[in-house]
């Protein structure tokens, strides 16, 4: 009986391998294909399951060593094209054929009512309308350039400097982990909801805790769940249920805000922030009986997206001002080098809306194209010494900023981060204001920081300690 069972398993395995091989061979005859992992034999040869759970940018980088800068891998239901080349990345990210984020039915869309809604992961006309409305409305509110947003940044900077001063007066050592979450979120939240969170807000603490847990569990293209979505139906096997329940908390949070605004009914005649303008547009569209894009589900998803973007980005006398930015090229070069090294979003996704070609090879509609931004930022083909921290690589002999086109910290094309300008300005002002007053060093009383990061949808360093001292000058 045992021999029969073993023989059956071996026969089944041979049939599967043979079927995969015949399918691949027939498929290859029809069109030119990218190198990579496409069959069960490839999966076994390259020991693919051993890589699951590693950060996706590491997996894509190791694949480049074997297959070149552009390759594909098909595992289970997932077909991913990996891009480690900046020219190909720019072409893909600016192509109208790759305007979608992920294919229909992707497991991630359970966060948005099983629909491709929102700005971060939305697709098609839904995404285009939502993004255009967000860009226009936030710009009118002062998002990007302008004194309004600089005032918001300065307000948050005051709080940060006060917290640092309190540390200096006490023990001089602190852990930066989480130190900037609320201030950076507040810069955007002031425009979204017309208010700011206190640094000890319990509801905010709960939402941020969920967000960072979800963020770390979402490793695009590098987990068994993405290859085999049906695994989400097996209780406790993955963290799927936990992050879906977490997103329900976000929806409940924004639905409560929506209901409060509708009850007050001030948003129609006197809108003050993004939420007011969105609810007004929703009311107008409902009244016209033609509301396809400004629905309650879309509102909840867009607000969640903006909250997450603010949480994960990055009037006091003598604070630095943006007017001095062009006069501080070395500081700007340093922030550019930090963005290159940090590479907060290591891999971003695109999804072809129709069959297309990359490097004269056919890419099927609905494939996932994973663009390895981290691999580009640390490419030996672009930088002679990519692992060295050297701001001078972004400075010409005349002291002008150069080479920024060789990095993609905020993406590229129409799906480029809509908050890039505000993020860069916030980073510049926070960075200069702190270094203007204080010096920071690694704490000699604690272990050196680990060079391994905590990676999911975005990257972050593992917790570490620094000492801070007030500058004498």
UniProtKB/TrEMBL annotation:
Q: Which GO terms describe its cellular component?
A: cytoplasm
Keywords (alphabetical) are: Heme, Iron, Membrane, Metal-binding, Monooxygenase, Oxidoreductase, Transmembrane, Transmembrane helix
Q: Does the keyword Transmembrane apply?
A: yes
Residue ranges of the TM segments? 6-24
InterPro entries in the record, alphabetically? Cyt_P450 (IPR001128), Cyt_P450_CS (IPR017972), Cytochrome_P450_fam2 (IPR050182)
Cofactor(s), by name:
heme
Which GO MF terms does the UniProt record name?
A: heme binding; iron ion binding; oxidoreductase activity, acting on paired donors, with incorporation or reduction of molecular oxygen, reduced flavin or flavoprotein as one donor, and incorporation of one atom of oxygen; steroid hydroxylase activity
Which biological processes are named by the entry's GO terms? organic acid metabolic process; xenobiotic metabolic process
Q: Does the keyword tRNA-binding apply?
A: no
> Cross-referenced PANTHER family, in alphabetical order?
CYTOCHROME P450 15A1, CYTOCHROME P450 508A4-RELATED
Please report which protein family the annotation says this sequence is part of. Belongs to the cytochrome P450 family.
Name it.
Answer: Uncharacterized protein
């Amino acid at each position: 009986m045992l021999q029969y069972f073993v023989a059956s398993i071996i026969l089944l395995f041979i049939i599967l391998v043979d079927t995969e091989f015949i399918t691949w061979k027939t498929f290859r005859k029809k069109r030119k294909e990218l190198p990579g992992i496409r069959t069960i034999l490839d999966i076994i040869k390259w020991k693919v399951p051993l890589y699951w759970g590693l950060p996706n940018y590491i997996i894509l980088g190791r694949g480049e060593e074997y297959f070149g800068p552009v390759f594909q891998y098909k595992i289970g239901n997932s077909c991913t094209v990996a891009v480690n080349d900046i020219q190909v990345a720019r072409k893909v990210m600016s192509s109208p054929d790759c305007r979608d984020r992920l294919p229909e039915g992707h497991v991630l869309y359970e966060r948005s009512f099983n629909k491709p809604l929102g700005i971060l992961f939305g697709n098609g006309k839904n995404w285009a309308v939502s993004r255009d409305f967000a860009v226009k409305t936030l710009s009118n509110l002062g998002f990007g350039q302008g004194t309004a947003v600089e005032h918001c940044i300065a307000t948050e900077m005051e709080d940060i400097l006060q917290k640092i001063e309190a540390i200096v007066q006490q023990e001089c050592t602190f852990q930066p982990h989480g130190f900037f979450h609320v201030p950076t979120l507040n810069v955007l939240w002031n425009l979204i909801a017309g208010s700011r969170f206190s640094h000890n807000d319990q509801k905010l603490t709960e939402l941020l805790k969920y967000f960072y847990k979800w963020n770390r569990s979402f490793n695009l293209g590098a987990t068994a769940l993405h290859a085999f979505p049906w695994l989400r139906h097996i209780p406790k096997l993955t963290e799927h249920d936990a992050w879906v329940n977490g997103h329900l908390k976000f929806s409940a949070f924004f639905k409560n805000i929506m209901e409060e605004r509708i009850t007050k009914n001030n948003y129609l005649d006197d809108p003050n922030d993004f939420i007011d303008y969105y609810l007004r547009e929703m009311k107008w569209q409902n009244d016209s009986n033609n509301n396809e894009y400004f629905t309650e589900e879309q509102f909840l998803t867009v607000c969640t997206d903006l909250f997450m973007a603010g949480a994960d980005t990055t009037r006091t006398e003598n604070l630095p001002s943006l007017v001095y930015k062009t006069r501080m090229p070395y500081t700007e070069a340093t922030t550019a080098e930090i963005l290159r090294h940090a590479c907060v979003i290591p891999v971003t996704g695109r999804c072809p809306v129709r069959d297309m070609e990359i490097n004269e090879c056919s890419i099927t509609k609905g494939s996932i194209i994973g663009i390895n931004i981290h691999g580009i930022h640390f490419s030996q083909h672009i930088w002679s010494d990519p692992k060295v921290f050297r701001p001078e690589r972004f400075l010409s002999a005349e002291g002008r900023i150069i080479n920024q086109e060789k990095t993609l910290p905020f993406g590229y094309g129409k799906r480029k981060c809509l908050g890039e300008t505000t993020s860069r300005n916030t980073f510049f002002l926070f960075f200069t204001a702190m270094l203007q007053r204080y010096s920071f060093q690694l704490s000699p009383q604690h272990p050196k920081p680990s060079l391994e990061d905590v990676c999911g949808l975005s990257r972050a360093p593992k917790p570490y300690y620094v000492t801070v001292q007030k500058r004498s000058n």
